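Re: beginner question about structure tokens

> Can someone show what the tokenized structure looks like for a real chain? I only ever see the sequence side.

Sure, here's an example I had lying around. Input first:
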Amino acid sequence: MSSLSKAFTSSIGKKFVMGLTGLFLISFLIIHVSINALIFLNDGGETFNVAADFMGHNIIVRILEIGLFLGIILHIVQSLILTQQNNAARPQKYAYNKPEANSKWYSRSMGLLGTLILMFLVMHLYHFWWPTKVAVYTHQEHNTFQNIVMIFQSPIVVAVYILGVISLGYHLLHGFQSAFQSMGWNHKKWTPVVRTIGVWFSIIVPLVFALMPIAVHFGWIS
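And the corresponding structure tokens:
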């Protein structure tokens, strides 16, 4: 057990955990954005509500939710630990090596972007996840689509959601490829492909998430 503990508490082990939880969260985003995209069928939310109801009541999905929350918490904790260790090992804070010439600003701002995403996530859970769970455990009917329509009438809420998904996009620009790299999956042939997929993923997923509140707010979806 001591060797296993050292494997996960070492610098390489922490990066491995970051990569593993990052890939898990990327998988969740694929499922989440696919369900959200059903709203663009513009059928009064019928198909979207069926999918949302399935996700809310399916026992397997509810078990996976526990893993999702654990993954998010572990991802945050490990990122904080790695950031602290990197800062401690670099007391000069790039005084001489001009970080702007060696890396993108979002690569150096993963902590800030992650904090903004966390704040956005808390609001998102309050608006949508919590009412759904209350309905499930109290055996009440809940129209998720109508809840979305009501929430996104506020331009302030729409603006906050857009800022949240923009932060997510920049976080993914670095995090997508970094997750594969942290797992040790580097290859001169496939790494450029992963990098390209990561860029498109970082654009398309946040764009779909952003279009939903915009479309609802302006009445493009009825």
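Each token stands for a local structural state, so reading them left to right follows the chain. The CA atoms of residues 156 and 162 lie 10 Å apart.
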